[in-house]
Write a structure and sequence with these properties.
globular; 6 strands; 7 helices; single chain; 45% helix; binds NADP nicotinamide-adenine-dinucleotide phosphate; two-stranded parallel ribbon; alpha/beta; 13% strand; Rossmann fold
């Protein structure tokens, strides 16, 4: 699984390590990855998902170590380095977000899918976001990357269904991690004022529980399904 060193990915890795042999990736925070390894026994592997050679190395490492891949969790992702109104935001940031949040998981999935198709079974999870359908004008490139990722789920679910490989979208709402640290206080205030029907911020464990249900095969007849793990944010209320 990707992006296991911190935040949501770390929560998922801790949960999965109870039952699975886990390979958890990190990009720059080796310290955080090492502490995950210590805590859970998971293998750790440095992989920038936007880099094709590093994606291939990750799959080769996993195959060498375990000889199969039962579950791929595409979790690694980033917010724009600077939040900027779409009137000002740069092409550099757009390219970085698309490469990391969309192209990376799309092509990592292609590598894993070939192996799972040969195995005759497998499960794949994409961690997207409420941003795949919610316009945030100061991080348009993030919204576009996540909207594209939701389509990737549909494509891979349709392509792999006959190979007995199930594909799921887990769509987090506002989850307490480093990614939202700068705006955590504002979000807390907005949640208290009614932004979320369930009036609390999400925690990495909330996402991990959804992935647990998928990993245990409880949703195996639901390929292509979207799990909104967002405290009801997606509900339209009149
Ligand atoms: N937090 C939220 O409210 C929220 C809401 C909706 C969706 N999400 C999505 O959930 C996922 C996890 O987010 P988070 O909040 O847990 O973020 P986070 O706390 O910032 O952690 C991000 C993780 O992804 C890794 N990562 C970042 N860029 C990478 C790259 N290019 N290649 C490989 N790994 C990379 C990081 O590795 P290092 O530790 O080595 O830097 C870290 O493990 C993301 O896809 C995010 O878009 C988050």
């Amino acid at each position: 699984m990707t992006g296991a060193s911190r935040g949501i990915g770390r929560g998922i890795a801790i949960e999965l390590a109870r039952t699975h042999a886990v390979v958890g990736t990190y990009r720059g925070r080796r310290d955080a990855a090492e502490s995950l390894k210590e805590q859970t026994g998971a293998e750790i592997f440095q992989c920038d998902v936007s880099n094709p050679a590093e994606r291939q190395a990750l799959i080769a490492f996993t195959q060498e170590k375990f000889g199969r891949i039962d579950l791929l969790v595409n979790n690694a992702g980033m917010a724009p380095r600077v939040r900027q109104d779409i009137m000002e935001a740069t092409e550099e940031s757009f390219d970085e977000l698309i490469a990391t949040n969309l192209k990376g998981p799309y092509f990592l999935t292609q590598l894993a899918a070939r192996i799972m198709a040969q195995q005759g079974e497998g499960r794949i999870v994409f961690v997207t976001s409420i941003s795949s359908y919610t316009a945030s004008l100061n991080r348009g490139e993030y919204c576009i990357s996540k909207a594209g990722l939701s389509m990737a789920v549909a494509l891979w679910a349709a392509r792999l269904a006959a190979c007995n490989v199930k594909v799921f979208e887990v769509r987090p709402g506002i989850i307490r991690t480093d990614m939202i640290a700068a705006v955590e206080k504002t979000y807390e205030e907005r949640i208290a004022a009614g932004l979320l029907p369930q009036r609390r911020m999400g925690e990495p464990r909330d996402i991990a529980q959804a992935v647990r249900a998928i990993a245990d095969g409880l949703l195996d007849y639901c390929t292509g399904q979207v799990l909104n793990v967002d405290g009801g944010f997606h509900l339209r209320i009149l």
